[in-house]
Amino acid sequence: MNAPAVEWRQTFPGTAQQVARVRRFVALHLGDRREVDTAQLIVSELSANAVRHTNSGEPGGRFSVTLRVEGDQLWMGVLDEGGRAVPEVCKADERAEGGRGLDLVDHLAESWGVHGDERSRTVWATVSLSPRLPCSGRSA
User: Fold this and answer.
1) What confidence score (pLDDT) does residue 107 get?
2) Total-model pTM
3) Nearest to 63 by CA among 100, 16, 24, 104
4) Residue partners of 3: CB distance under 8 A and separation at least 6
5) pLDDT of 121
6) Which domains are present in the chain?
């Protein structure tokens, strides 16, 4: 029998300092999974992009992070407050001052995509999860 999906969501102020809080949020909920580092990296890149490239980074802006575990799949999404630019992987010659975040996500995630429009977008990514790490027993 499959376990039911589990979901966690949190909203953060749209400042660069919140990206560290996002990593802690991911670790809190996925801490015993082997993929926690990958998930932290993906979600922190997506969160940094929301702050840097969308209206979420404007004064008073916010963004939300959702983690959903369903079976052996982890879905991660960052909902921003929209903007004119559509998230896309930059070509190598366009990355002099940045643009590596989505390239990194593209390499680490099994899949990723974008939903929404200039009013609000969710950039999401998925990774497969291995079985949970066994609990360590006490030493005799």
Assistant:
1) 92
2) 0.86
3) 16
4) 71
5) 96
6) 6-128 (3.30.565.10)
